[in-house]
Each structure stands twice: as structure tokens, then as C-alpha cells.
Design a protein that fits this description.
Length: about 500
């Protein structure tokens, strides 16, 4: 199956092709990767996905394989790969930092980072050059997560930053198949780079944590804008402000560093990919772009330059843009950044669409979002970009099937930062969509960088590749124009 795909295509695309060709009736199938890896139970059915992630005895269980995958990224156990017993108390502590109320308080900081991103886009528009949107956006989202999680300005968009550069290097050196290919453990240069980057990230984050704790200890009643980690610290330590220890508890400090590394990875990586695909889909669907801009004119005023100041004063407006939210959800449906996994148990089986029982013992359950979200079995016009499917009622034929959209997953181990991501993307679109037009340059890129083999997947040139999260192929080469200038170049 992989031979029929572009050579750098994400492996999950092959799972989708296997499903369509052989297992569409059930919506689930086993694939055994022994001796390199374990037995997988691939799930494409909403019914089976609901069981796996929400209602069965495995809804909170993570496979051990994730520990090996995330070790270079986070440095150790984290909210993503902890066992249920260890995960529950930590999730409760970290939940406070991602509440909707707190996320909205972070909007002014998001806007300041987004303004720098706009400056970068204006420079490219002025030069008229072809550039890679994905790496450019990765540095933007790195700054964005630094502001929201640590309330610090990394400056990754305009220069070098140890924390940002170390994480980006860690991802470049991360071998996605290392956990299934034993020979990868013999790559000693990778070991060294991972160790060096990890130490640098730990030092930077640890210093910031100590600073935040010292500020809290000096003024527990401070009303300054708090980052996610500020609320996490407050939720963890004693509420007896007369007996605050001089230093953070070492166990909490180490665990918090690992979680912040996780938030930096997940928060910047998948968000960057989603931004690129939103831009791609809007640029190739001008009617949807027009509706989006009309909503922004109506809610935020006709002058695009007023959007930033208005959102700073009234951040709740970021959640009052239904068409914008629909555009984000539809983009996440078509180009989901990651799958979901659960660990099977001897006593748990999943029931397929056809009523077949699939025992989960000794299996890694892989919910293949990228195919589930595009399967014609569960979606009307599955490959079309139709934001309106998120605005219609249940009586409408476009209304999504129950459990078929799982971009942030459902159930107890859903994405802790989903509200943060939705607000970040809404703020970005509110500021960027009415100022810039984009045009992909894949044809020009391919002429300058010829290679053999197919360059499309199901007709899509911006197919997904694995680079941490799923990202657009070749970094998404494009040109950006100040609004309406694009018309004069065609």
C-alpha cells in the first residue's frame, strides 16, 4: 500500500486505503507489525471509536509504545502517556490552566504575537517571493504557546531562542518509527542531540518556573495576567499562603517541566499544521473565504485594522464567530493533525459497524482520524470543504454523524487544550483573513525541485507527511499578497 503513496506520505494514509479496499463493511481491522512492533487494531468506525475512547474499559488506557515516542520530546512521563491511575490527579491540576474563562484572558497576548506574524507576511508580500508557510508558521506558533503557557516572549519569529530552537531541533531529529524499528536505537548522534536539546529545554523551562513561583510567593494575591503555568502552580501548592515553601517541590517541578515541553510540542506543532491547511482550503474555496470575511466585517467592524484592539477589549468575541469556528472544524476534519491511541485489555472487545466483535487484548487501538473524517460511509461529500455542515441542524443531510468528528478526541482523555486552540485559531483568522490572500506554489516548487514518483494523494498535492504532527508536503510553498493584489497578478 505504501508503494502507491508519495514516498514521504504519512503512514496513516495507507491505513485509510486498506480500510477502503478491504474493510469498509466493519470499519475496523487488525494489522500485525511483528517483529518490529505490536498488533494494531485500526478503527475507522465512529461506533467503535466511541467505545474505545469514551464508553469502554480502555477509554483511559494508553499504550506503552507512546512512552518511547514521547521520551525525546518531553523527557519523561507526561499527561499524554501516563497510566490512568497516575494521570487522573495530574489532569485535575492542569485543567484549571485551560478553562474557557482563563483562555479568553490570554487573548491580548495572542494578539501581540499574531501582529509579529502579520509583519512577517507583509514582508513576504512586499518581496513577492515564494516561501514555505509551514516552517514560518511553526515559529509563530512557538511564540504563541510561549506566551500562553509561560507568559514569556520567546522571539522565535524574529531571531534565535534556545527553548524554541531546541524543540524545533528535537522534532527534526525525532525519528517517528524509532519505537517500532530497533535499529534506530543505534543512532548515537541522535542520542546526543536529544540529550543536549533536552537539557537546554529543561534549563530554560525550569528557570521560568522558578521565576513564576518566586513572583507568586512574593505576591499571592497578584491580579496580573496569568499564564497557564501560573494557575497550575497555584492549583498544586498549599493554599496556606503563610507557609509557602521557599522552592517548588522537586517532584512537581520535574513533572511540570515535562508537561510544558509537551504543551510546546503539541501546542505549536499541530496548530501550525492546522493554520497552513486553513489557509490552503480558504485560498482554494473563495466563496467560503468571502463568507468568513463577511462575518468578520459584521462582528468586528468593517475596518480590519480595528479587529486586534476590539478583541483585546472584548476577547469573548473570539467565541462569537460561528462561521469562523465552522471553518476551523471543517479544516480539522479534512486534515487532522494526529490519530488517537488506546491500549487494549483482555476483557474488552469493540463492536464494529457490522456487529463483529474485535477483542482488544494485546492490541494497540489506533483511531485513524484522517480516514474516519473523510470516509463516504460516514460523511456526505466527504472530500468537499463545506463549513456549513457545522451550522445546520440534525435534520439536515450534511449534519455530522454521531462520533464521526474526533479532531480533539472525546472521552476522559480528550485534548486538554482544545479551547485554547480554537480561540487561538479564531483570533488568528480575525486578524489575518481580511488583510492577506494566499496562493500555493506547488507547480513552481516541483519545477525547481523535480523528483520521481507520484506527488499527490487522492488528487491532493498538499498531502500530509509525518513530521511530529501531520504537516503539508514540502512545507507548503506559497506566495502571499495584500488583499485584492492577487487579482492583479492573475
Amino acid at each position: 500500500m505504501m508503494d502507491a503513496l508519495p514516498k514521504d506520505a504519512h503512514y496513516e494514509l495507507a491505513f485509510g486505503d486498506i480500510f477502503r479496499q478491504y474493510f469498509a463493511r466493519d470499519g475496523a481491522f487488525y494489522i500485525d507489525l511483528w517483529p518490529l512492533s505490536e498488533l494494531y487494531l485500526a478503527v475507522i468506525s465512529p461506533t467503535a471509536a466511541i467505545q474505545a475512547a469514551q464508553t469502554s474499559g480502555i477509554s483511559c488506557e494508553r499504550p506503552r509504545l507512546l512512552e518511547r515516542f514521547f521520551k525525546p520530546i518531553t523527557g519523561g512521563p507526561n499527561l499524554f502517556d501516563l497510566s490512568e491511575k497516575k494521570w487522573r490527579p495530574w489532569r485535575a491540576i492542569f485543567n484549571k490552566g485551560f478553562s474557557t474563562e482563563h483562555v479568553l484572558s490570554l487573548v491580548p497576548g495572542m494578539i501581540s504575537i499574531t501582529s509579529t506574524y502579520c509583519d512577517t507576511l507583509r514582508k513576504h508580500a512586499q518581496k513577492g517571493d515564494m516561501f514555505l508557510l509551514d516552517p514560518t508558521t511553526l515559529r509563530f506558533t512557538m511564540d504563541l504557546i510561549g506566551k500562553t503557557v509561560l507568559n514569556t516572549t520567546l522571539g522565535a519569529q524574529t531571531g534565535s531562542n534556545v527553548l524554541a530552537d531546541s524543540m524545533l531541533s528535537q522534532i527534526r531529529w525525532h525519528q517517528p518509527n524509532a519505537e517500532v524499528n530497533p535499529l534506530e536505537y543505534l543512532n548515537f548522534p541522535r542520542w546526543y542531540v536529544h540529550w543536549r536539546n533536552g537539557r537546554q529545554m529543561d534549563d530554560c523551562i525550569g528557570e521560568e518556573l522558578d521565576k513564576r513561583y518566586s513572583e507568586y510567593r512574593a505576591d499571592p494575591e497578584s491580579t496580573r495576567t496569568k499564564a497557564v503555568i501560573d494557575l497550575v502552580i497555584q492549583a498544586y501548592i498549599s493554599h496556606d499562603k503563610e507557609r509557602l515553601p521557599e522552592k517548588l517541590d522537586p517532584v512537581f517541578r520535574i513533572f511540570a517541566i515535562r508537561q510544558i515541553r509537551l504543551f510546546f510540542f503539541a501546542g505549536h506543532d499541530s496548530t501550525s499544521s492546522t493554520i497552513c491547511y486553513i489557509i490552503h482550503l480558504l485560498s482554494t474555496n473563495p466563496t467560503s473565504l468571502a463568507y468568513l470575511r463577511e462575518e468578520h466585517d459584521r462582528v468586528l467592524g468593517p475596518n480590519p485594522s480595528d479587529a486586534a484592539s476590539l478583541l483585546s477589549l472584548k476577547p469573548q468575541l473570539a467565541k462569537s464567530l460561528p462561521y469562523t469556528q465552522a471553518v476551523i472544524k471543517e479544516s480539522l476534519r479534512l486534515f487532522t493533525p494526529a490519530a488517537a491511541t488506546r491500549a487494549g485489555k483482555p476483557s474488552v472487545s469493540l463492536t464494529s459497524d457490522a456487529g463483529t466483535l474485535f477483542p482488544t487484548e494485546d492490541a494497540i487501538i489506533l483511531i485513524v482520524h484522517v480516514e474516519l473524517h473523510r470516509s463516504p460511509k460516514y460523511w456526505l461529500r466527504p472530500d468537499d470543504f463545506i463549513p456549513d455542515r457545522w451550522l445546520v441542524g440534525p435534520e439536515h443531510e450534511l449534519y455530522p454523524s454521531k462520533g464521526a468528528w474526533r479532531a480533539f478526541e472525546h472521552g476522559p482523555r480528550n485534548c486538554i487544550g482544545q479551547d485554547l486552540v480554537m480561540v487561538q485559531l479564531s483570533v488568528l483568522l480575525a486578524i489575518v483573513a481580511r488583510e492577506f490572500d494566499f496562493r500555493n506554489c506547488y507547480e513552481e516548487w516541483d519545477s525547481l525541485n523535480p523528483r520521481k514518483g507520484t506527488k499527490r494523494y487522492r488528487g491532493e498535492r498538499a498531502y500530509q507527511i509525518e513530521n511530529g504532527a501531520a504537516h503539508p508536503a514540502d512545507g507548503y510553498p506559497c506566495r502571499v499578497f495584500l488583499r485584492d493584489e492577487l487579482k492583479h497578478t492573475e
